Amino acid sequence: MKIKSGKLTRKITILILNEVLENGLPFDEAFIKSIKEKSPYKISDKDKAFIYLLSSSVLRYLTQIDSTIASLLKDPIKKLAINPKMALRIGLAQIFVLGTPIHAAVDTSVDAASKKWRGLVNAIMRNISREESKYKKIFNSSPKIPKWLMERWRENWPKDYTNFIKSIQNIHPHIDVAVKKDIKHWQIKLNAQILPDNVLRINDPGLISQKVGYNDGEWWVQDYSSQIPIKVFSVKKDEEILDLCAAPGGKTAQMLTLGARVLSIDKNKNRIKKFNENMKRLKFDANIIEVDILDYSTKKKWNKILLDAPCSSTGTIRKNPDILYSHSTKSINNLSKLQKNLMKKSWSMLNKNGLLMYCNCSLEPEEGEKIIEEFLSNNKNAKIIKFKPEEYKYLNNSIKRQGWIRVLPSDKGKVKNTDGFFIAQLQKI
Questions:
Q1: Rounded to an integer, what distance in angstroms lies between the CA atom of residue 208 and that of residue 221?
Q2: Whose CB among 45, 174, 238, 284 lies 3.0–4.6 Å from 279's, allowing a Cys bridge?
Q3: 223-428 maps to which CATH number?
Q4: Which pLDDT belongs to residue 318?
Q5: Quick one: CA torsion of 227, 231, 234, 240, rounded to 10 degrees?
Q6: Which residues pair with 302 in a beta bridge?
Q7: DSSP labels for 352-421?
Q8: 3-class DSSP state for residue 423?
Q9: What is the pLDDT of residue 6?
Q10: Percentage helix, strand, coil, to 5, in the chain?
């Protein structure tokens, strides 16, 4: 059975959006699942790249897109059926975000709708085409992110939140990678930029899995910010380290590259599957235990523990725009409670004079600064080992007076446009 390329790409895009917005699946998982679902059709790498671009663009601009659609409806948008809503969303994203010619955006949106809804989708899209400037103004003046997150960021980051939003709405975000060895060789091969402390940044668009060296396990995707905790943990050859909440394994790979002996723990089956796939591709002999850390029982104590705590991941929205719709203030509060319990358990497995590295990719103080402040207040045998700006000059703007590291997407240091990240190092005294 043949199907036109343009029609197929829009249908797959709607499948992805349904998985994310209706079924709560993370964007990358939804992308892979939806492509596989249509595997009987031949989908070129070019079409896959376009599907990724269109579906991620809808998610990045969804608040504005839905606000614009709502202005064209008599009833509230939440009453509109899923099928026409999705067809209209991809239509508006094509016109106002990707700059697709209007006639093509109208035709593909109508094609993407089921027969029952094609008349409505056609009428709304033609209204937009007739008065494009009017609806462009509505689009531009609409809220750019969901209300719950806008309120939080305005309060917590009043000088920075507008730049956070700009990073989210960059439809071609760069990709940072960690390289096993010979970084200059891979800089040339990948047409990449070398960042401070030997991190590569790839600015070329396209599917990562198609890039040279990926399938050979010579490098792995890991944001610049995410690489910092291990860079500042002084990992030594043959050193034993307990890696908690380890999957999908970027930091584990860093430590194994440095020659450490790492015991990794995670409870999420899907993430562990990804961890094992990554380690196999990278040719690392990694050891991971599937267990809830809070239930983990051992008499062994470690001198070094890495706790990359589960979090809301709001620092990574520029690459994972589904996070805008999968979290809320309530879920952040719940995650904060979990992080406190994980800190307590991690501390119980740490030797005297041992080091605990706490980190995550959230921009929310309840998951970073407030966790450490409360832990230090409640545990008199804990002290913070301060990071010093003079020792990490490339992190100058990110090292705070309290001694922890807070990386913002809007930082104006030597490395710009990174994921948001929080890092603190504690010693048991």
A1: 8
A2: 284
A3: 3.40.50.150
A4: 92
A5: 20
A6: 350
A7: EEEEEEEEES---GGGTHHHHHHHHHH-TTEEE----TTT-GGGGGGB-TTS-EEE-TT--SSS-S---E
A8: strand
A9: 76
A10: 50, 15, 35
Contact 411, 307 (CB under 8 A): no
**Can you tell me the distance from the alpha carbon of 423 to that of 232, in angstroms, rounded to the nearest whole number?**
10
pLDDT at 1: 41
How many CB atoms sit inside 10 A of residue 381's CB?
11
d(CA 268, CA 318): 24
Structure tokens at 152: 């939080």
Q: What residues in the chain have per-residue pLDDT under 70?
A: 1-5, 39-40
Contact 4, 19 (CB under 8 A): no
pLDDT score of 2: 45
- Burial of residue 33 (CB within 10 Å: 0-12, 13-18, 19+) is middle
Spatial distance between the Cα atoms of 15 and 38, rounded to a whole number of angstroms? 10
Name the residues annotated as catalytic. Answer: 361
Q: What is the pTM assigned to this prediction?
A: 0.93
> In the chain, what are the domain boundaries?
5-141, 177-221, 223-428
C-alpha–C-alpha distance, residues 69 and 124, integer Å: 8
What pLDDT is recorded for position 194? 95
For CA atoms 240, 244, 249, 251, the dihedral sign is negative
Instruction: Pinpoint the alpha helices (H) of 4-101.
Output: 5-21, 27-37, 45-60, 62-70, 82-96
Q: Which two tokens stand for residue 158?
A: 């009043």
- What's the CA dihedral at 43, 46, 47, 48 to 10 degrees? 80
Domain 5-141 belongs in CATH node 1.10.940.10: yes
Distance CA(418)–CA(175), nearest Å, equals: 10
The structure tokens listed for 287 are: 């050891």
In angstroms, the CA 365 to CA 369 distance is: 5
If one counts every other C-beta atom within 10 angstroms of the C-beta of residue 164, the result is: 22
Rounded Cα gap, residues 336 and 357, in angstroms: 17
Same fold, 5-141 and 223-428: no
Cα-trace Rg, the chain: 23
